[in-house]
Amino acid sequence: MCLATVQRSDDNTVICKNVSRIDVDGEKLILRDIMGEERTIIGKILMVDLGNSLVKLDCQ
Predict the structure, then answer these.
(1) What is the dihedral of CA 12, 15, 16, 19, to 10 degrees?
(2) Chain centroid to CA 37
(3) From which domain of life does this come (predicted)?
(4) Least C-beta-crowded within 10 Å: which of 19, 31, 36, 49?
(5) Which tens digit of pLDDT belongs to each residue from 2-34?
(6) 50: alpha, beta or left, given left = phi > 0 and alpha = psi -120 to 50?
(7) What is the DSSP letter of 11?
(8) What are the residues facing 57 on neighbouring strands?
(9) What are 34-57's pLDDT values in tens digits?
(10) Residues contacting residue 53 through CB under 8 Å, at least 6 positions apart
(11) 45 CB burial (10 A radius; 0-12, 13-18, 19+)
């Protein structure tokens, strides 16, 4: 299983850890962690690094 850390691109602030799924609905990103908790962010995905389990977002 590949779990990711999601960060803001501008300041590398961690938004969510152990993310197992990201759903995209227009400008909404729904992040789901391994415990099933969801967090909705308005923004877009800028980069996904599967080797380092890192996702960077441009978000408000």
Answers:
(1) -70
(2) 13
(3) Bacteria
(4) 36
(5) 899 999 999 999 999 999 999 999 999 999 999
(6) alpha
(7) T
(8) 8, 45
(9) 999 999 999 999 999 999 999 999
(10) 2, 3, 4, 5
(11) middle
